[in-house]
């Protein structure tokens, strides 16, 4: 059983008690999943005056939306360099702009709805695990400015102490556009905004089947039915058997996080002086940050079968001490895990099946802001199905053949820096 009692759950804003669905109701749009994607979809639909109902198997923000690291980062699993190599500079620029737009959408909603989620424009930093990685980061900084006028700041090992009090790394690359937040509080605030605008959210309401009929769809739960003309799947790593195409197009994987006891501001400010969101350049990377209550949150372990083992958390603690040896006497007060989802091409996907079935999923662990952006795209696809779409939205969602799953796992460990070595 995966731990779901995260630091975020322990420090969240008050949660409403929402009812389970009972009986039969009718709406324009039924949305399955009350994470960032589903809630953002409902938010933008209600702003347009379209009726919608959100069904959640557990409670608002229960899945990855309430259990991630709270890193609102630019970029995708695939680098801009790799995107440019595949599709050219014009398309890569579109992808880069879309990434930044996702962060802006989060900021807009937080400001407009007064959501208290500790949103901070703190920036992020990639830390170089090897000396050669530091050199590659320097080339990346130069490339991004020359090609896109996108400003990054390179930090060599002599300057690194100003950003990170650790001897584990060789340099870093700062992206000032990234942010941080309390992810569960963002989900809670987004859900409250949906309801204030007239949307309905039902919790503890697991969908058992989806049946097509001459009016649209009958979405059945244990104690109720929703009749709707459109259906939205917003379940990402928890997409199961309700839609075979979506289930067969992603590979769920387990991801795990720990958080220390509260260390106090003096210690955390010294360890991460500028409160950056930090990840490193290893194939299976570490990622870590300060939290609003002055802990160190640390993640990086994955399991390909999504099965939790206590040894995963022990390994995470050992990894944490590689970076910050002085924390050896500090307690680990929280540990939790959950599922992320990887499509065949390592890009997030948003789209429509049969004109009335909509989806957004496959964030590859980079969905904190993209999911909000994709929620808006899903809403727009319903409101105006003939609208012009960007290249990011047109990526085909392919089924992952069983014989390709092993290759997919191996590709997750692919060396990103072998590509950067070729960037001049």
From TrEMBL:
Ranges in coiled-coil conformation: none
Gene Ontology cellular-component annotations: cytoplasm
Source organism, top-level taxon: Bacteria
Domain FAD dependent oxidoreductase: 28-380
Name of this chain's protein: FAD dependent oxidoreductase domain-containing protein
Organism: Sutcliffiella cohnii
Taxon lineage: Bacteria, Bacillati, Bacillota, Bacilli, Bacillales
């Amino acid at each position: 059983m995966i731990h779901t009692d995260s630091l975020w759950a322990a420090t969240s804003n008050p949660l409403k008690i929402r009812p389970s669905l009972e009986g039969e109701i009718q709406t324009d749009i039924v949305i399955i999943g009350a994470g960032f994607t589903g809630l953002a979809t409902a938010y933008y639909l209600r702003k347009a005056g379209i009726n919608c109902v959100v069904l959640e198997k557990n409670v608002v923000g229960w899945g990855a939306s309430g259990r991630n690291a709270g890193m609102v980062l630019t970029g995708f699993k695939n680098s801009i360099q790799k995107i440019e190599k595949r599709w050219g500079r014009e398309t890569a620029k579109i992808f880069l702009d879309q990434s930044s737009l996702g962060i802006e959408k989060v900021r807009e909603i937080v400001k407009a709805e007064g959501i208290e989620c500790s949103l901070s424009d703190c920036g992020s930093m990639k830390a170089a695990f090897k000396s050669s990685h530091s050199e590659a980061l320097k080339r990346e900084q130069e490339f991004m400015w020359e090609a896109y006028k996108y400003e990054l700041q390179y930090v060599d090992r002599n300057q690194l102490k100003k950003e990170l009090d650790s001897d584990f790394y060789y340099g870093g690359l700062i992206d000032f556009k990234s942010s941080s937040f309390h992810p569960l509080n963002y989900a809670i605030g987004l859900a409250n905004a949906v309801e204030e605008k007239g949307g309905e959210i039902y919790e503890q309401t697991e969908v058992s089947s989806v049946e097509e009929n001459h009016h649209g769809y009958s979405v059945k739960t244990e104690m109720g039915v929703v009749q709707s003309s459109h259906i939205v799947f917003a379940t990402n790593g928890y997409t199961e058997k309700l839609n075979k195409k979506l289930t067969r197009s992603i590979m769920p994987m387990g991801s795990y996080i720990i958080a220390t006891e509260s260390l106090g501001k003096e210690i955390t400010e010294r360890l991460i002086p500028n409160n950056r969101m930090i990840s490193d350049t290893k194939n299976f990377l570490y990622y870590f940050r300060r939290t609003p209550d002055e802990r160190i949150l640390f993640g990086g372990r994955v399991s390909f079968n999504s099965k939790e083992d206590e040894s995963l958390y022990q390994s995470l603690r050992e990894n944490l001490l590689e970076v910050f040896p002085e924390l050896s006497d500090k307690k680990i007060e929280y540990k939790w895990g959950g599922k992320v989802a990887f499509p065949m091409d390592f890009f997030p996907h948003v789209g429509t099946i049969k004109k009335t079935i909509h989806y957004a999923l496959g964030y590859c662990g980079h969905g904190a802001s993209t999911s909000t952006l994709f929620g808006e795209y899903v809403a727009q696809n319903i409101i105006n199905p003939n609208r012009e779409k960007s290249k990011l939205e047109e990526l085909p969602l392919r089924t992952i053949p069983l014989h390709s799953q092993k290759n997919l796992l191996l590709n997750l460990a692919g060396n990103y820096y072998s590509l950067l070595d070729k960037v001049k």
